[in-house]
Structure formats: C-alpha cells, structure tokens
User: Which sequence fits this backbone?
C-alpha cells in the first residue's frame, strides 16, 4: 500500500493545466462489467461508475454536476461505496505497469485518494466494504491456476488477509458482523465473508486475536448434497430473511444457503441466459438476467415466487437499491441506465450512451444539439441542455463519419460504402446512395449544389443534392482520404487530404486538380480551413504538427506543435476561426489560438484514442469523441473574440 502523496504513472501526468477550457460533462457508461454502478448511502442522488480510466461521481438531479477522479491506468471494472458513504473504492483491469496498483480508495468528501492497493492478481472483478467500513475485500481475475482475494484494513491500508484460491472465486459478499465473544470485557467484532467458487462456497470468519494482536481468518465450507453442484456464480447477497444467503448462477438459477448451519438449501430456476446481478431491497429480492429481464421475488428458504418482472434492453449487469426512495438503479450492457420503482417496477431511462468506439461527431446550426456515429452502426442526436438522446437509429454495419447540413439533414458514411441520409429531428431515413465507394466512406462534405464523399479507395466523388445522381469523381489519392471540405470563399473548390501525405484542391469548373501539396515527414489525419488571413488550409499530421498551407506557396507557411513528439489524430476550427482544437495521441485535446500561435487549453478526459472533434456554432463548447466510447463536452471560455478578417483573396 502507498500512502499519500503518491506519484501518478508517467503517462497519467496532467502536465500544465490551462483554464481556457473545462470539462463540463462526460457521457460514456457502457455497462459491460458486472458491479459497475454504486449509489451513495446518504446522498442518494450521487451515483458512482467508471468511464474508461476515469471514475465518475454524477448527481442524478443535475446532469451538469460531475466529479471525475483520475488515478487509474486502465479501464475501471468495479466500483463501490462504503456503507457509511465516507469512502469509495474503484478497481481496474490489470495494470499496464509491472508494479501497478489495481485498486484506489478515495475519500468521498475531499474526492482525494487515500490508499492505492495491490495484492490481487489480474483484473479486479469485485469490491465490497464491510458493514462498518473497517475492511475492504477484493477479488482478482487470476490466471489458469486460480485466483485470489485480499482483505485490507481501512484504518491503515495494510493487508489484513490474503487468500489464494485454487478454484477461482467469482462472487462474494459480507455477512452481518457479530460480537466475537460476549464473555470478554472488551467486545470485538466478528466479520463473516462468503466467497463463491466453481464447486465450493466458503465462509470466512475474521476475528481479532489478542495473542497475535491482529485479525486472523478461519474458513469453513458450506455443505452441498453428495452429488455436488458445479456452477459459476455471478453475484450474491444476503436475503431479506435473516440467516439466508442468495447467489445467482450462469445457468439462471437462484441458489439459497443457510448462513447459520452453512448448508445448501435450494437451487431454483429463475431465468434464461444466466443470473448476472441481484440485490435485496425491503422484503424482496431483485434479480437481473442475461435475457434482459428484471424479476422481483419474495419468499424464503426453498419457497420463492416471482411477484413482478420488467423487460429491459440488454443484459442486466448491475442492480443497486436506493431504499430511501424505494427505487433501483439498473445498468445494462447496451449502455443504458434505468431507474425502476421497487413497488410497481415503473421504468425510466436515466442515461444512455455508446458501447462501441465513436467514429464521428457534428453540430448543425444549433449550439445545443449534436450528433454522433459509432462502430456498432448507431446514429444518436443529443441535447446539450440535459444530455438526453433526441433521436436514435441503427444500421446494419459500422457508421464511419457524418455531416450535418443547414437543412437539418444528417449525412452518414458507412463501412459498406454507402451514404445514408436521416432527419436531424427524429433520425428518420430520407434516402441513400449505395456503394459510393469501394470500402468504407471516410469523409462527407456539403456544397450549395453537390454532396461530396471520400473513401478508403482514395477517390473523391460528387453527387447531385436533388436526385443523388453521380456527377463525377477525382482519383488523385492512392490511400484513404482523411479530410474533405468545401472552400470557404469559392464553392467550386473542394479540398482533401490523405494518408498518402498529399493535400489536393479540385476545381469543379474545370473538373481538374488545381493545387497539390506534399508533406514528406508524416501523413495527414485531418483538414480544416482558416477564416482569416489568406484562407489557408490547416492539416493535422502523424508527426505531431498543425501545418498551414497557402495555395501560392508549395511549403507550409506556418506550423504549430506542442513540444512533444506524438501523433495528431484530428483537427477542428472554431466558428470564429481564431481557435483550432486537435485530438492528440496522449489522449488530450489541445486548443491553439492561431493569432497568438500559443496553446490556450489542454483538455484531459479520454481514456482511448480521440477520433473526432466538433465546435458548437457559438464557440462556447467543444465536443470530443473517441475509441473509449466516451463523449466529452468541454466549456470554452475564450469565445466571442473579434471576428476574423475575410479580406484575403485566393
């Protein structure tokens, strides 16, 4: 264990924090992991979950109120609050560093880390605090030789017990603490912890030993029928009836044990596709299964009955009770989070986001609406006022790019080479152009009379806006095109850049190439155009530069760099033309003031490659998306500067 202050890993260094931009909100709960949500016991409006490497504390009553806790170097897999709410803990996938710590314990009030813990092997699959906050237990994924679990003392962060499990432990829960020995003058608590293995269930008793002056662990086996019961257990909980332990299995059973006699009592078939999550609330047990059903059960011992159920979208991976409000917070693996009433099972969608990497983002004419497309073929339109989804549609393959037209149409490019058109209000289909390109469509641009598409085949094609008929094509590139735009001044000029290190300008009047630039040191990953000066083109490159290109000069007339050698993945220019945002290889968004040629903001929120950026029309917000399926909304505080001069001629 390492006490504060502790150094973050080198790749987790924030560097200099600049105040021109601030993270307003992050959307990205995926629900792929079990035990991925927790709710604060006292402030029940506060939820805890992970997005990539970041731990998120979100207020359900105010979508603009989020706290981000950074201290992990890999994806968050398990989170939990202590019963009193004083502490919270987060666990991650196996660290990329040999001596990395997988678990961070945070103080809730200060949002500061208290301990960084290591001791379990591999990915952390479960975290649980004891009822009095004294101990934290964790299970590691382990390896082919089994796994392990550890118990830490939260008074000093030391390891109280470490247990190697030849048969992998997959679930655990604490029992009710009791007094170890009533005959003693000094009463000490006796803790019980139940761990579930493939063919065995263990009851561990943690008691303070006066002779050794530390807590010792005694383990007993729960008794099964002579034939045994080989199961994979996903989750477990104490029953509302005192003295019973309930567990859910991969074959859809609810298994009941008696905690006092340590005896197996029953295995009741409940659902199909496995029981993935369960919890007790009041006098009921709520069970979430792989078929998307949430069931409400009542009973005890061998006698249980289903008194209600509701169908959700996706496998139910997390269930957290909020007893003060009589509700459940439920997460599914389709990135949806629900609030469900315990009494009538009434359902409300609290949040929905993406599961797969997000490939594109775009604004229309409004500053409060934006759209994204993702690798799983989903187009979503979001409202920035409350981050709700206004429109949704799913395609048959991966969506690769998009463009929002002034007529409130969303043009989308797809992996099968098609361009499909949807309305921005409700994502209804309005038409399509199949087989625009051989391979996927990589870029789309809109002109007064034509649509322009670019693809993996290196071709730029022109389409009539009225009837979608093919007009012509240009094949100047020999590798995928990564940037495409219509000139700010002359609508008959179209610009493109490619991985082949070329920037090309096409003249629609002469149907020929009118300009060609080459960069020897790196490929181009994105394209934008200045609104001031000589309307130069701006490109982001794989060698970490933003290059400015004048049509009359063969070499770049300006270069911006951040002082570090890294790839720039994408580029976007603000509505005023004064600021340029770049998604960088170190997972940061950097914003330059072009006029001053200096960085005004370094924005850190993503845990995966940043794939695309978009400025709001009022320049007050910037949205970034990435491979981590996260959407980061940044407030920008330098908006409203002087409008750029457009007196330059080409």
Assistant:
């Amino acid at each position: 264990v390492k006490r504060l202050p502790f150094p973050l890993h080198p790749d987790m260094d924030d560097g200099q924090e600049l105040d021109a931009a601030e993270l307003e909100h992050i959307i990205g709960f995926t629900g792929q992991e079990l035990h991925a949500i927790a709710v604060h016991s006292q402030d029940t409006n506060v939820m805890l979950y992970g997005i990539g490497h970041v731990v998120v504390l979100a207020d359900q009553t105010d979508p603009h109120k989020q706290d981000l806790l950074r201290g992990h170097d890999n994806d968050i897999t398990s989170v939990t609050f202590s019963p009193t709410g004083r502490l919270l803990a987060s666990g991650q996938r196996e660290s990329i560093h040999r001596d990395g710590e997988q678990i961070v314990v945070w103080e809730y009030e200060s949002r500061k880390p208290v301990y960084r813990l290591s001791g379990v092997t591999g990915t952390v699959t479960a975290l649980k605090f004891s009822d009095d906050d004294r101990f934290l237990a964790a299970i590691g994924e382990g390896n082919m030789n089994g796994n392990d679990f550890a118990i830490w003392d939260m008074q000093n962060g030391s390891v109280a017990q470490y247990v190697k499990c030849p048969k992998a432990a997959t679930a655990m829960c604490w029992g009710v603490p009791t007094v170890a020995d009533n005959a003693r003058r000094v009463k000490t608590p006796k803790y019980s912890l139940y761990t579930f293995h493939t063919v065995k269930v263990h009851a561990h008793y943690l008691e303070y030993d006066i002779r050794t002056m530390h807590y010792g662990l005694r383990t007993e086996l729960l008794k099964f029928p002579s034939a045994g019961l080989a199961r994979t257990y996903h989750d477990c909980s104490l029953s509302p009836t005192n003295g019973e332990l309930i567990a859910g299995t991969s074959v859809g059973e609810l298994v009941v044990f008696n905690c006092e006699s340590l005896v197996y009592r029953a295995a009741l078939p409940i659902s199909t596709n496995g029981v993935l999550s369960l919890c007790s609330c009041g006098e009921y047990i709520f069970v979430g299964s792989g078929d998307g059903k949430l069931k409400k059960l009542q009973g005890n011992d061998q006698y249980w009955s289903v008194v209600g159920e509701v169908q959700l979208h996706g496998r139910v991976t997390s269930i957290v009770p909020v007893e003060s409000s009589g509700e459940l917070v439920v997460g599914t693996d389709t990135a949806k989070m629900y609030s469900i009433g315990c009494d009538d099972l009434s359902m409300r969608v609290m949040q929905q986001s993406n599961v797969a990497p997000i490939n594109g983002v775009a604004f229309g004419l409004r500053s409060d609406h934006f759209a994204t497309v993702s690798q799983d073929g989903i187009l979503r339109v979001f409202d920035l006022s409350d981050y709700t989804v206004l429109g949704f549609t799913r395609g048959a393959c991966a969506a690769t790019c998009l463009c929002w037209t002034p007529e409130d149409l969303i043009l989308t490019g797809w992996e099968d080479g098609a361009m499909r058109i949807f309305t921005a209000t409700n994502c209804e289909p309005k038409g399509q152009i199949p087989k625009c390109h051989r391979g996927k469509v990589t870029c789309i641009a809109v002109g007064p009379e034509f649509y322009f598409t670019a693809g993996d085949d290196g071709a730029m094609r022109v389409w009539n806006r009225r009837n979608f008929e093919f007009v012509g094509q240009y094949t100047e590139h020999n590798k995928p095109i990564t940037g495409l735009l219509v000139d700010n001044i002359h609508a008959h000029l179209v610009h493109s850049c490619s991985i082949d290190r070329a920037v090309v300008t096409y003249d629609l009047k002469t149907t020929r190439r009118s300009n060609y630039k080459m960069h020897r040191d790196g490929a181009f990953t994105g394209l934008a155009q200045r609104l001031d000066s000589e309307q130069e083109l701006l490109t982001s490159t794989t060698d970490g530069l933003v290059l400015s290109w004048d049509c009359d000069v063969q070499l770049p007339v300006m270069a911006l760099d951040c002082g570090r050698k890294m790839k720039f993945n994408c580029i976007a220019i603000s509505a005023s033309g004064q600021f340029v945002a770049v998604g960088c290889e170190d997972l940061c968004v950097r914003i330059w003031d072009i006029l001053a040629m200096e960085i005004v903001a370094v924005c850190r929120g993503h845990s995966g490659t940043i794939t695309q950026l978009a400025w709001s029309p009022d320049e007050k917000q910037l949205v970034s998306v990435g491979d981590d399926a996260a959407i980061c909304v940044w407030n920008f505080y330098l908006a409203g500067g002087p409008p750029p001069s457009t007196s330059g001629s080409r």
In short: The mean pLDDT is 90. The two ends are 63 Å apart (CA to CA).
